[in-house]
Amino acid sequence: MENKVVQAIEKYSTFLSGPADLDQLKDAAGDAKFVLLGEASHGTSEFYTVRAELTKKLITEREFSIVAVEGDWPACQAVNRYIKGYDTKHNTARDVLSSFNRWPTWMWANEEIIDLIEWMKNHNEKHETQPKVGFYGIDMYSLWESMEEVIAYLTKIDSPDAEVAKKAFTCFEPFNRDNQEYAVSAGLYSEGCIDEVAKLLATIQRKKEQYPCEEEMRLNLEVNALVAYNAERYYRSMVLRDEESWNIRDTHMVHALNEIMKFYGVTAKAIVWEHNTHIGDARATDMAHNGMVNVGQLIRQQNKPEDVFAVGLGTYSGTVIAADEWGVNHDVKTVPKAVKGSWEDLMHRAGAYDKVLIFNEENKKNFQQRIGHRAIGVVYRPEYEQFGNYVPSVMSDRYDAFIYIEESRALQPLVLERVVL
């Protein structure tokens, strides 16, 4: 079986030697409204640089206007405001990336993303099309920051709804911004703030047309309220069922993305940057057996097949930025050669070079086997990799294409010292 897969990879893959070789992915995506770009880790330089080059092509040649990433909404809004010229405080992309001050900061506060941010800003300045190309975080870990954003905006416009927001935030204050403390209190002892954030979200959604909308402030208000509501649900569920908390998070990311799409209108087209475990269809992995869904699955279910194009990324060996435990200092770790028989190992055996493989009707049948596919998180212990870092996957069902990097190198964080949570 392995030899047949290797032979099929040799036959259907093409060399990846530079940005020009990414044109085939742009062309294969056709008129898709969603192009999902994955990564096998949050700390690999090539995953960022390759996605950035493909993103530029999609913006300039396919009129994509949204870049949505696995990041916090408030911090990414700082980037969005910078590239759209709303921000008068920051002079460079390097300055604005200081907004990413919550661990793991390196995911977005890194050298590799600077070029794309400056490129997007320059693109917006050169083109008068509306709406401008935007950069958005669709994750939901920013419970406290999002609550503060809601209060600040409602107070600024002198809205009576500010009192509803302040009441909701007051409920969270005893937990001192400690997500774990809130999770235990709400999940185990039912001492949570669900009623308060539900009332806040309902109020904002009911009255959203009444709020001023300049510089996307109405969208910002609504999504921050959505973050607060779903983050509360996420932390309340995480101590009870991992599967439920996962589903809340990925469903939220799709909800937030859809709100951005509605804001941009019927011609909206979005590029999504997230980990492979989010953008690769969960139904093609063992996640489905555990009752888990993900962004890739939900977006495919909500749209026509031709409107979604998902690209996975992976590597055979190299280095990566990660941490030994959640919240501790990160460092450069060695990514060992892929486990024998894994997807990455088979890609390597098909030729020790970077390559692109596009799955289509002609070749999909050659990649229907369930094969281990490497996934590295922000917490990573290479010495234990073979016991938990490979996700059984039907690759041609999980993705529409795959980008393989033979030997990758670690991302370059802007700030190397530990940042307080």
From TrEMBL:
Biological process (GO), any one: response to antibiotic
Xref: InterPro entries: Emycin_Estase, Hydrolase/PRTase-associated, UCP036794_erythomycin
Q: Which Gene3D superfamilies match?
A: EreA-like (biosynthetic domain), EreA-like, domain 2
Against PANTHER family, the record matches this protein to: ESTERASE, PUTATIVE (AFU_ORTHOLOGUE AFUA_1G05850)-RELATED (PTHR31299)
> What protein name is recorded for this chain?
Erythromycin esterase
Protein species of origin: Terribacillus aidingensis
